[in-house]
Amino acid sequence: MQQLNLPEYQFNIKRKDNSIVILDSLRKRWVSLTPEEWVRQNFVRFLIEEKEFPPPLMNNEISIIQNGIKRRCDTLVADREGNPLVIVEYKAPSIAVSQKTFNQIVRYNMVLKAKYLIVSNGTSHYCCKIDYENNSYSFLEEIPCYSQLID
Questions:
Q1: pTM listed for this prediction
Q2: What's the rounded Cα separation, in Å, for the pair 116 and 149?
Q3: H/E run at residue 117
């Protein structure tokens, strides 16, 4: 798989039938290893190992209903009370992070009301903090550690 702008991690990968699958540690099941999935697995590991995000508060592929349509949020991280804290949207490395990507995650956040949004294609990562009181947002220079998000 493609080299990403993240530390290198080891994964459980195997061939199943005619495809390659990777073990998703959060979903605890084997999933097809697509380029987007490669970004997800590496980024989740980055959040856990480098940014000290607690795995029990993280979930991949969370279903939400938006305007009567079922959508799927790539990764949702909760605070210690179980409320949405961070939404992460992934794209394959070949797909540039664009305004369309941010529009997608903002639509999800209209339902979830998380405090932070992160978008990554594995090579570029963006994190913004939502300020609901002032109806604004600000981009952060780097992705904070989990403990910095809950203060």
A1: 0.94
A2: 8
A3: strand 116-120
